[in-house]
Amino acid sequence: MKSETIMRFAVRFYIGVFFVYLFTPLIIMGLATFNDSRFPTVSPWKGATLKWFEALAQDGAMWTALWTSVVVAAGVLVVAVPVGICCALFLSTVQGKGKTFLYSLMMSPLLTPGVIVGISTLIFWKGLSVSGGVFLTVVAQTTFIAAYVMLMVLARLQRFDRTLENAALSLGATQWQAFRRILLPYLKPAIFSAAAIAFLQSFENYNTTLFVKGYDTTLTVYIASKVRTGLTPAVNALGLVMISVTILLAVIYEVKRRREQSMNG
Amino acid sequence: MFSQLKARFGSGLAVGIIGMIAIWLIGLVILPQLLMVDYSFRPNLLPADIGGPKDVYSLTNYETLFGNHIHLKIFFKTIWSSVLVTGLTLVVSYPIAFYLAKVATPQKAALCLLLLIIPFWINEILRTFSWYIILAYKGPLNALLLGLGFIDRPIRFLSGDGGVLIGMVYAYILFMIFPIYNAIESLDTNQIKAARNLGAGWIRTHWRVVIPHAKPGIATGCIMTFMLAAGSYAVPALLGSPGSRWFTQIIYNWFFEGGDWNQGAAYAFLLLIICIGFIALVMRIFKVGLGDIAK
């Protein structure tokens, strides 16, 4: 029994250390925003200030980059979500030879380093005289984000009861009606979460975007360039805003999930 | 295959589905990759010479790497460091994944999972940047260690590969935890209890019962982590120093500073081959198929 107690304590301790490790960087980054220092740090502490938020708000290039990111992410959503759904429908319907091969092919963008997705897209479109920019960024990101959407939709599709569809068909619904009224509503939650993930993936992508962005700059690329040149705590202010939005979204998601759970149970 | 689709969705929708998939797979996935490989075997020519007598296939672009000691060293260092990152991440992740799947109560596990996901909804750049602050020469970690009397003078964390490794483990840990968590969760807890009742110690229980069951998850996690580490540009660019360049940075320089895309394509293809090789190796070691990956 005694070794069991020690074991339990060790596990608790490890989990505690792990979560400290997970969150300390974010807390430090947040704190550095308020430090009245020219350079982002928390040591030494030079007094509290809010001036870096002001500096951020006046940063025109940042707002342009933010807008570019939103446009790119919206473009990716419009293309990657339907493609991902189609792949999931295809995989859940067909049987037989070649399916494993096609599945591997559809998965391959996720197993390819992001820089290579960017490079191959850049080279391919150069042949068609299209150079880097918002359009290519959308294309390159769609290449692998569609695979994420596919996986998420497929996970839900695998729990779908096909007899529901057959019932609709034998009751006289057309195939389109059965799809529209039965399958699509069933998939809706998965489609929404896939869309959210797709948006996030697009928004935070760096490795792929870097190669295909041309002269356009997304927010992530902008932050990276700021970190490497001209680093001020305004970057932290931006980071803090993004972290706050993220945590807010996570809390909303969790509250909603709990409410649904208590309604179902 | 088309007939199966048509039987379920009708011909209109079936054509749409096939069409979307075809455009994506052919236009975005297959052709660009093939063209990149094609590019890598051609010389870098002026636009006027393309298609002319000088435009012949050769291995010149690949010979460049093997003739350049610095690039070759960085190439192997990138592979080795990525293996190291993968190993470290696995060691850190496994206990967490096991705890979440088998020890914690469902409510606790749900909360922990949410806490895990939050940092990963935040930009990779920002996460890496926060390590940049922590590990800086005059940063809080050095201040803490000095204050506690562990060290006499600050450590230059960011001048070698150490900072890059720490940043990468942090950045990719979720890609390791989740597949392993999913795999362990599907293990029947009674099997663990049985092993314990029959006298197996904790280590033996993990080695003989839990780990064999979690193999596909471990394989997926290792593949994802290695691929992300070897292909990372952000982390080495932010946490590395000129002396600790990553292979992706060399590739980037060929494209945007050297202006030799053919050379860059050859380097990129080598990186891809390494990743494919690693995937094949992991699948062989863990004896799992492609179908088991990323489930």
Corresponding CATH superfamily of chain A:
MetI-like
Number of helices of chain A: 11
Question: What's the CATH topology name of chain A?
Answer: MetI-like fold
Gyration radius over CA of chain A: 23 Å
Q: Give the termini separation of chain A.
A: 37 Å
Largest interchain contact: A-B, 86 and 84 residues
Secondary-structure arrangement, i.e. CATH architecture of chain B: Orthogonal Bundle
Count of β-strands of chain B? 0
The helix content of chain A, as a percent range, equals over 70%
The total count of strands of chain A amounts to: 0
- Describe the biggest sheet of chain B? none
Q: Please give the alpha-carbon distance between the first and last residues of chain B.
A: 23 Å
Task: Return the string of H and E elements of chain B.
Answer: HHHHHHHHHHHHH
Please sum up the structure shown.
The complex is a heterodimer of chains A (265) and B (295). Chain A has 265 residues and is mainly α.
Give an overview in words.
The complex is a heterodimer of chains A (265) and B (295). Chain A is mostly helical and 265 residues long. In chain A, 78% of the residues lie in helices and 0% in strands. Chain A has a single domain (62-264), classed as MetI-like (MetI-like fold, Orthogonal Bundle), CATH 1.10.3720. The two termini of chain A are 37 Å apart. Chain B is mainly alpha-helical and 295 residues long. Chain B has 13 helices and no strands. The two termini of chain B are 23 Å apart. Classes of the chains: A mainly alpha (265), B mainly alpha (295). Chains A and B meet through helix 1, helix 3, helix 4, helix 5 and helix 6 of A and helix 1, helix 2, helix 4, helix 5 and helix 6 of B.
